[in-house]
Structures are given as structure tokens and as C-alpha cells.
């Protein structure tokens, strides 16, 4: 075992062989600062400006929107950073380490929702990359790729969708080593272009009108802004952190893992959120346009000479986020116990993304309504599971991060830990029952605990139930585990000549 946090990276590019097994200490390399570019490249996206518009559109003042957004980002990103510490401590991806808490089979419930969350984000990102590329072609070659109203043709959209999906899958299939290299260059490129973009946006801000809007949200609306920021950024990443940190040496300082993860996510989105709030406060029509087409409404403000290269960078940044997500979704499928190759999981992901993108592009009436509703609904489960896992870190640390706890009962783990599962099911019911949805289809599965009167209250419409569910889940689990001292240790069979407690069996292919 090495204590170094500066081990050299393995030479030569190769397809990753590790799956949900613990990465051996001999294969660990890098330092925690390497986590910054992978998260930065994902989040330095024009979507960050749209997020600022969305938070402002809740009915907050300019400075309320900015402060609520940044607080929400920091709170949720710190949680991602803390959960990422489990990666170097165990060498396991996050959704395998959560077996410590929920049990081998019990872990399949939060893992399934983590996979759905992952796919939802990939659908959103690849859809936006496809529509951006199609819009670019429609402007460059209108006779071939545009309709009479200037919008791209169906074949143009489909062509860009196939191209975006193919690029994402081809890089993701190689795994951790290639992703870490690619994302580093993407971070520099998108960061540089975003700086130019920000300067070009400044003339569109009417500085004399900033802060003079009539909107001023009350406390619950402000909390709703914090919650919305948390669901748009950090809470959706809770199940990813350890996937990229597990190749770090085991004794990498936790503070550095948390810092670089938090900084990589929150820094770019916070800067872009401020710009988005400024634009929305001085241009009321922008909020409505961003709800329907978040990227097009912003790129239309650019001079044509920059619109073309920046559209290409937007596509690259969106696909960068999709690549890391597809990689983690393969790990999620393995954590579910699906015995599949990396090629098979890639094909399955492609089919699911295809159906989801079709809904988002051709059925949904509003990108914002569907996007916000999906985030809130899935964050109820993921946020609650993350809160429970954070509480369980105290137990896992006390037990020395023993990776045999990820095994089945009889080999050091448990098939299910009812304390964690009861806490998660209760929190999920409370959360789904107390949020609302602007999407008519998602609305059927939420809000069942609300009366007709409370359904239209700020508490419900701001989806504060997401935070309530996290507090309920974490509180119940803490009470059962530490208050009532229900530890539920792992179950190990009696050693015999043929049956012994074993470490987590390697499953090295995706």
C-alpha cells in the first residue's frame, strides 16, 4: 500500500478492466487535484446560465436568486465531495459502496433510481447537444437543413442525435483512463471559450436596471430557490463521486478530495448563474424563451462570427458530461447485478437515451417543466439515499472501510439492512407526496400527500419536499443506528474447507 497521492498514471491507453470490484492498490495513481478538471469540464456549460434564469424565474429578486443559487450549489456539491471520499478509501464505485449501508440486494432499489437519474441527465445532455448541432447546420446551410421558418429539419436533428450518441458511447466504453485525459483538455477549451462568451454577453445586460425589479420572494420561495439549485447540480451527482476518485491512493486526504470535487462543480456554475440572473433581471423576455429552448435563446444573442465556434464548444461540453455519465451508468448496471459486457450496457444505454430524447424533443410541451419535474422527483430518492449514506459513513469509518461489507450475507455483508431501507422508503414517500410537477405526466406520481389548498402553496411548488425527505431519511437512520444502537453487522458463515469469508469478488468488465 502506498501513501502517496502523486503516483504516476499508467502508461498506454487501454480499455478499463475494473468494474465494481475494488481497484487494487497497485493500480492507484494520481492526486486529488485531478478531480477538478473532470467536474469542471462537465459543468462549464451554457446550461449554467439557463440555471440562473430558472432560479430567478421563481419570483426572487436579483440578489436573492444569486445568493440562493450559490448556497444551493455549495451545499449539494459539498455532499458530493464527502461521498467521493469513499472512493479512495475502498476503491469501489459509489453504487457498490452503498451496499455497506443498504445491503447487497437492498442496494438495488437506490441503485435503480441512480441509474434512472443518470439516464435522465444523459437524455437531457445529448438532446441539447443534438439540437445545438442541428441549429448550427440550419443557419450555415439553410437550403439543405432548415425548414421555411428557419428551424432545422427532422433529418438534421436525427443525424446530429446519432452522431452525438455515437461519440459519447465510443469514448465512454474505454473507461476511466481515457475519460480523465479527454476531460482535462475539454476543461481548458470550454473554460477559455466561456470567458469570451461572458464578455460578449455583458453588453446585453442593462446595468442601470439591475436590482430594480418588483419581484421579491418570501422565505419559502427563497428556500425553494436553494432547493432548485441543489437539484439542478449537486444532488444529481451524489452517486458519481466515488467513481472517479476510487483510483486515488487509499490515504489521499479527505479534505482535498472534498475541496477539489466541490470546486470543480460549484465554481463554473456559480459564475454562470450570476450571468444568467443578470440577463434575466434586465431582459424579462429571456426567461420565457429559456424555458422552451435554453441554449438557442442564449446563443441567439451572439455575433455570428462567435456563434459558430461556440456552438461547437457547447456540443463538446455537453458530450463531455454525457461521457462521464454513461461510464457511471455502466457501473450502476453492474451494481444492480446485471452480468453484461461493456458493449452490451452501452447498447442498452443507447436505446434508453433514444426513447427519452424522443419524448423530450417531440412530446414535452416545455423543456423547463419536464426538466425541473424530473430533477425534483429523482432527487427525492437520490437525496434521501445520499443523506442516509452520509450518516452511515460514520459506521463505515469505525469499521475500517471493510470492503467485505459489500458482499452477500455469509461473506461479510448482508442481503439487506432494514434500518436503511425503512428510512429510505419512508423518506421517499414523504418526498414524492409533498412535491408537485409542471409536467402533466410526472404530476400523476407526485403530490399525493397534499390537499388541494396546499398543492398550490409555495412549499409545494418550490419542491421543498426534497429537503424534507433528506432530513427524514437521515434522521430516521441516525435514530435507528446510533440512537437505538441497531448496528446490523455483516453475516459471515463459519469457515470450512469449502466456504470461507471472502472479499468482494472481482467483476472487472462492464
Automatic annotation (TrEMBL):
What topology does the record note for this protein and the membrane? Multi-pass membrane protein
Keyword Transmembrane helix part of the UniProt annotation: yes
Key words, A-Z: Membrane, Transmembrane, Transmembrane helix, Transport
Location within or outside the cell: Membrane
| GO terms for cellular component | plasma membrane
Question: Which chain regions cross the lipid bilayer?
Answer: 36-56, 63-85, 119-141, 153-173, 185-207, 219-238, 258-279, 286-306, 312-336, 348-368, 374-394, 415-438, 458-480
| MF terms (GO), sorted A to Z | transmembrane transporter activity
Per the record, the domain of life is: Bacteria
Q: Which Gene3D superfamilies does the entry link to?
A: Hydantoin permease (1.10.4160.10)
Under the heading PANTHER family, the entry gives: PURINE-CYTOSINE PERMEASE FCY2-RELATED
As for family, the record states: Belongs to the purine-cytosine permease (2.A.39) family.
This chain's protein is named: Cytosine/purine/uracil/thiamine/allantoin permease family protein
Amino acid at each position: 500500500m502506498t501513501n502517496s497521492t502523486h503516483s504516476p498514471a499508467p502508461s498506454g491507453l487501454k480499455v478499463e478492466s475494473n468494474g465494481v470490484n475494488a481497484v487494487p492498490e497497485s493500480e492507484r495513481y494520481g492526486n486529488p487535484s485531478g478531480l477538478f478538471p473532470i467536474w469542471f469540464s462537465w459543468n462549464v456549460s451554457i446550461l449554467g446560465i439557463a440555471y440562473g434564469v430558472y432560479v430567478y424565474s421563481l419570483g426572487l429578486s436579483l440578489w436573492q436568486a444569486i445568493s440562493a443559487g450559490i448556497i444551493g450549489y455549495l451545499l449539494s456539491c459539498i455532499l458530493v465531495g464527502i461521498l467521493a471520499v469513499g472512493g479512495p478509501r475502498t476503491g469501489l464505485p459509489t453504487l457498490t459502496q452503498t451496499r455497506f449501508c443498504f445491503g447487497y440486494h437492498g442496494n438495488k432499489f437506490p441503485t435503480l433510481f441512480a441509474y434512472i437519474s443518470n439516464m435522465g441527465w444523459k437524455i437531457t445532455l445529448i438532446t441539447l447537444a443534438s439540437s445545438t448541432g442541428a441549429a448550427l447546420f440550419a443557419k450555415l446551410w439553410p437550403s439543405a437543413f432548415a425548414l421555411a421558418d428557419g428551424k432545422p429539419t427532422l433529418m438534421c436533428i436525427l443525424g446530429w442525435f446519432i452522431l452525438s450518441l455515437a461519440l459519447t458511447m465510443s469514448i465512454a466504453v474505454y473507461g476511466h483512463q481515457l475519460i480523465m485525459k479527454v476531460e482535462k483538455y475539454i476543461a481548458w477549451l470550454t473554460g477559455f471559450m466561456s470567458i469570451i462568451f461572458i464578455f460578449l454577453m455583458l453588453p446585453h445586460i442593462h446595468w442601470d436596471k439591475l436590482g430594480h425589479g418588483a419581484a421579491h420572494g418570501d422565505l419559502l420561495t427563497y428556500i425553494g430557490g436553494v432547493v432548485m439549485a441543489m437539484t439542478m447540480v449537486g444532488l444529481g451527482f451524489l452517486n458519481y463521486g466515488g467513481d472517479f476518485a476510487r483510483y486515488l491512493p487509499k490515504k489521499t486526504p479527505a479534505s482535498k478530495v472534498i475541496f477539489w470535487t466541490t470546486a470543480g462543480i460549484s465554481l463554473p456554475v456559480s459564475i454562470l448563474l450570476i450571468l444568467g440572473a443578470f440577463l434575466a433581471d434586465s431582459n424579462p423576455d429571456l426567461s420565457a424563451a429559456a424555458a422552451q429552448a435554453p441554449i438557442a435563446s442564449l446563443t441567439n444573442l451572439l455575433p455570428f462570427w462567435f456563434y459558430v465556434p461556440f456552438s461547437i464548444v457547447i456540443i463538446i461540453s455537453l458530450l463531455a458530461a454525457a461521457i462521464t455519465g454513461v461510464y457511471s451508468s455502466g457501473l450502476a448496471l453492474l451494481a444492480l447485478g446485471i452480468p453484461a459486457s461493456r458493449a452490451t450496457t452501452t447498447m442498452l444505454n443507447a436505446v434508453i437515451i433514444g426513447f427519452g430524447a424522443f419524448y423530450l424533443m417531440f412530446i414535452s410541451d416545455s423543456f423547463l417543466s419536464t426538466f425541473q419535474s424530473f430533477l425534483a422527483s429523482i432527487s427525492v430518492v437520490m437525496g434521501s439515499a445520499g443523506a442516509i449514506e452520509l450518516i452511515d459513513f460514520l459506521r463505515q469509518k469505525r469499521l475500517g472501510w471493510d470492503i467485505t461489507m459489500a458482499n452477500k450475507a455469509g461473506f461479510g455483508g448482508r442481503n439487506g439492512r432494514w434500518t436503511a431501507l425503512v428510512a429510505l422508503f419512508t423518506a421517499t414517500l414523504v418526498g414524492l407526496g409533498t412535491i408537485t410537477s409542471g409536467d402533466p405526466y410526472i404530476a400523476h406520481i407526485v403530490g399525493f400527500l397534499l390537499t388541494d389548498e396546499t398543492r398550490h402553496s409555495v412549499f409545494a411548488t418550490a419542491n421543498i419536499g426534497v429537503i424534507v425527505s433528506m432530513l427524514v431519511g437521515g434522521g430516521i437512520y441516525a435514530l435507528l443506528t446510533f440512537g437505538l444502537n441497531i448496528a446490523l453487522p455483516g453475516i459471515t458463515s463459519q469457515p470450512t474447507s469449502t466456504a470461507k469469508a471472502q472479499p468482494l469478488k472481482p467483476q472487472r468488465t462492464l
